[in-house]
Design goal:
This protein is α/β, with parallel strands linked by helices. It has helices spanning about 5-10, 40-50, 80-90, 100-110, 125-145, 155-175, and strands spanning about 15, 20, 30, 55-60, 70-75, 95-100, 115.
Length: about 180
């Protein structure tokens, strides 16, 4: 191996027994991108570049992404929960997932990863269970013909709440060089 190739490899850590071990992978940001507001994506792109974090947008249609070595997108087939399943199968406990989808958020929390809504709510076991109950109740009302309305429009306050939540999570998790 040449000197240049050696210098480009990830550093390895040494295990307690003195043997080299694989470097611990960095956290990854996953974005359930089909319904993610553009301002949220822009905040994520800036964070990915600033902290040099791999970021993957998953959607069932092609997405425009910035030219960045840190941001990529995956197009999954159309269908109910296909993007959610794709993310949930690959997420790791170190990862952060951006989603407004409550069942996906529940799966993320169950796997030990961190989930954040585009409105800045950090999902936990307690609030995900509550949100699932409310979601199911609203679904039942809609099936009975009750007009429940939709969510309020995405606001500047939502954008700020999201930016603050993402910054708090990433600041705690990422060791700056």
């Amino acid at each position: 191996m040449s000197e240049q190739e050696e210098s480009q490899q990830e550093p390895t850590s040494t295990a307690e027994n003195g043997e080299a071990s694989e470097p611990e992978p960095k956290l990854k940001i996953w974005v359930d991108a089909d319904g993610c507001p553009r301002p949220v994506k822009e905040i994520i792109y800036r964070a990915a570049a600033r902290l040099e974090l791999e970021t993957v947008l998953v959607a069932n249609r092609p997405l425009a992404t910035p030219k960045s070595m840190y941001v990529s997108s995956i197009v999954v087939s159309s269908g109910m929960d296909v993007a959610d399943d794709w993310i949930a199968e690959r997420v790791d406990v170190r990862d952060v997932v951006i989603t407004a989808d409550i069942p996906l958020a529940a799966r993320i929390v169950e796997r030990g990863a961190t989930g954040i809504s585009p409105h800045g709510e950090v999902y936990s076991e307690a609030n995900v269970r509550e949100r699932l109950s409310v979601r199911d109740f609203m679904h039942e009302l809609r099936e009975m013909g009750v007009q429940t309305g939709g969510p309020p429009p995405f606001s500047n306050r939502d954008k700020q709440n999201f930016a603050n939540a993402l910054d708090r999570i990433l600041t705690r998790r990422v060791q700056k060089p």
